[in-house]
Amino acid sequence: MEKNVQTLTMENFSAVYEKFGPLVLRRCRYLLHDEDKALDAMQDVFLRVLEARTKLTEVCSSFFYTTATRVCLNKIRYDSIRVGPSIDALTVEIADNAKAFHEDITDASLVLDVIFDGEKSDTREMAVMHFVDGYTYDEVAEKMHYSKSGVRKRLKALQTRAQKAGK
Residue by residue, what is the 3-state secondary structure of the chain? Predict the structure, then answer.
């Protein structure tokens, strides 16, 4: 059984790309289920390989398969951290919950007004940053100049208030 190993140099990088590119793209498509993300991930894989070429003397299909898997899993992990619910989805969910239990509240903006009533203005900003923009507690804390525990406490209190408004 012949090994699928190739020496990696700057001169033969395009040949390595042509040889292993289809394998990497298939793996990225399989894991990401999105053509654009798969193409971006494939580019990231070959960029990493290009940057590490001085440390690598030979590359093989299993190396590219593993690297593509790691890049894709990191992208999935990053996307799940950065992507939160859209403001439309959040508004619809709040309105649906409120309508189910409070017949007189029909407008989602009224529900949000009830939830944010009495809250400091920066709490609303924190909520938008975390729930809409997908920032982590650490990122919100850094941008708002609060401690992570302070941000978490405010947002948990807000979630509790939203749940009570929906009951």
Answer: CCCCEEECCCCCHHHHHHHHHHHHHHHHHHHHCCHHHHHHHHHHHHHHHHHCCCCCCEEEHHHHHHHHHHHHHHHHHHHHHHCCCCHHHHHHHHHHHHHHHCCCCCCHHHHHHHHHCCCCHHHHHHHHHHHHCCCCHHHHHHHHCCCHHHHHHHHHHHHHHHHHHHC
